[in-house]
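The following block was generated as part of the benchmark described in Methods. Ligand: glutathione.
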Amino acid sequence: MIALFSFGPGFGLPDPSPFVSKAEILLKMAGLPYVADTSGFNKAPKGKLSYIDDAETVVADSTLIRRHIGRKYGFDFDKGLSATQKGIAWAAEKMCEEHLYWAIVDSRWMVDANFAKGPKKFFDRAPAPIRPLVIAMGRRHVRNSMKGHGMGRHSRAEIERLAIADLDALAGILGNKPWLTGAEPCGADATVWSFVAGALCPLF
Ligand SMILES: N[C@@H](CCC(=O)N[C@@H](CS)C(=O)NCC(=O)O)C(=O)O
């Protein structure tokens, strides 16, 4: 059975990580049985979740997981889509993952009140005497990642404007359609759902 390495439900979401939610939805869309395993972060081959272990083939990265499912199980997440629809779906997906994601990270990790009720709890299992240090190191790691991406160099007001542009773009693509490309969900809907749910998460 496929093992999906996840953080586990949190923040009122199926998983705090939209990449894990995406991978989980892709497995469900393909009808593949899986077990969620929350013990894998420290062993993550690329230092990030999500990844899967499928009969000892380890696939790290949600998009590579999608590819693996497509190749190994013959499931076409883009069945019936035109080249234009595929292009729009890919662009929407990558906008969420490579741009909107960092605005979500900013709101969760860099806004003190949000950090306190959200990501700070990830560190509850650290021994009490060193917990403040571990928290500070974890937050610094995220701040540096945000700076490396570039989003972390903007003011909060700028980040929010950029995030609103992403959400407007998604709303424009969706229009009155139930799904990104029409009446049926495609692979990128797994992504867009996960990131929109993450952006709208009421806890924050
Ligand atoms: N491209 C990866 C991105 C995964 C990712 O950024 N995961 C975050 C959680 S949302 C993570 O594990 N970050 C840990 C870290 O950067 O140390 C995917 O699609 O799976």
